[in-house]
Amino acid sequence: MDVIGIPEVQELMRIPPIVPVERIDSTVRTSSNNTTYCRLDYTPKLRPPVVPHPGSYPTPLTPPRPLPPRKRGDTPKSRQLLKKHYNTKVVKYNIALKKYDEETAEWHGNHEKYLDALDVNELVCKNEDSDSNDGEEESQDDPIAAAQPLVVFTHGRNSTLDNTHITAFCQVFRTLVNNYPSIKVFAGRSAGARNAAKASIHAPVKRLIFFTYALVRDLEYRYADLLALGPDIEVLFIVGDGDPLAVETHLREVRNRMRAKSWWIKLIKGNHSFNSWSAEEVENTLDIAGQIAAIWAKTETLDPDLSEMKLQASFDTGKAEWTGWQVPEPETPVPETSFKVQVEGGTIPNGGGSFQFSLPGVPAKRKGNRGRGAPKK
Asked: Which Gene3D superfamilies does the annotation name (predicted)?
């Protein structure tokens, strides 16, 4: 992790990858009635693929709205024009629907060719409720398990896997980690991060990556899951210092109260949805954040003292700039405060008086991971 702050290494991290990231879309059965759509992102070997990936799935069409009922004041001519306009929409929709069916059929055909060229098959999970005739376990082709993924990541609330920033239930995490034992990290964005925290309590995963985390929403506090994490858990926060759902002072206090060790990549001037950044800043900065998170996830032993990093986009060039892991800044000391109270006696003889008291100051403390989770003596 120490090499992240070296300028030569940073220049290499800014270079686009030679081999683009590929993906495999598949499904995983999380229960007898539910199926979850999954996507495996991976980097193939340094050779061009025989068959290119067909790209994103064709966008479904929206059918035209039904013809509105007759209203008072409609004339025969206006009604006729309305029907003509509606019929034109229906004809165009039917033509587009026929084209959409052809595109989806072509996409599935190209996708099968792509998977065959990669020597993998569509992922089919075994149904635990089905009985085998000979009592032996059914075999299954599993490209994700063959790739041995390190991290399982879920999207945020009201979002999809196609989110440019990149809500799943906890059973999805547990099912995936049972099917693919290579997974060592749970990760998620916003609400997906909360689900990752909940799922880790009952899973053999010891590292978590939170790409934004909603500590508060409206008047509800949502950090109980973080406080429930054990001292053997290591957490990476990737949160902007302008995120209204995870204010910096609030996040620091929660991290200090957590039993789990935590690290923080502070995204300068980044809010929860990153809508204050330009498209170039989002692409450059979050790409580096993902690389740093991957290095953090793969590092065997993490330095508990170097637990914070600043990452931002350069105002002049738009390129990502970061500091490397640093020791957290100490808290602001609170000086000793003295109070003097004067009591007026009014018309009562010798009824007045005064007294004074003081509150002791609080020295600056440098919060970190050293000794976190150790039993008190």
From this structure: alpha/beta hydrolase
Domain limits, the chain: 140-322
Q: Which whole-number Å values give the CA distances from 274 to 153, 223, 245, 315, in the listed order?
A: 19, 22, 13, 16
Closest C-alpha among 222, 200, 213 to residue 152: 200
pLDDT in tens, 193-233: 888 888 887 778 899 999 889 888 777 788 888 998 999 99
Q: How far is CA 367 from CA 110, 224, 250, 252, 308, in A?
A: 54, 20, 14, 9, 11
Q: Which two tokens stand for residue 37?
A: 């759509």
Binned at pLDDT 50, 70 and 90, residue 288 comes out as confident
Closest CA to 13 of 311, 274, 263: 311
Find, among 1, 4, 16, the residue nearest to 319 by Cα: 16
Return the residue matching tokens 């693929």: 49
Q: Share the mean pLDDT of the chain.
A: 75
In angstroms, the CA 308 to CA 236 distance is 10
Tell me the mean pLDDT in the region 288-305.
88
In contact, 171 and 30? CB cutoff 8 Å: yes
Q: How far does Cα 322 stand from its chain's mean position?
A: 20
For residue 81, what pLDDT band results from cuts at 50, 70 and 90? confident
- Long-range contact list for 271-274, CB < 8 A, 24+ apart? 271/240, 271/242, 271/243, 271/244, 272/190, 272/212, 272/214, 272/240, 272/243, 272/244, 272/245, 272/246, 273/165, 274/165, 274/240
Give the chain's radius of gyration (CA, Å). 29
| pLDDT bucket at 170, cuts 50 / 70 / 90 | very low
Taking residue 209's Cβ as centre, other Cβ atoms within 10 Å add up to 25
Distance of CA 270 to the CA centre of its chain: 14
How many Å apart are CA 226 and CA 233, to the nearest integer?
Answer: 10
Architecture of the domain spanning 140-322: 3-Layer(aba) Sandwich (3.40)
> Is the pLDDT assigned to residue 261 strictly greater than 90?
yes
Query: Which tokens belong to 91?
Result: 């004809």
**What pLDDT does 264 receive?**
94
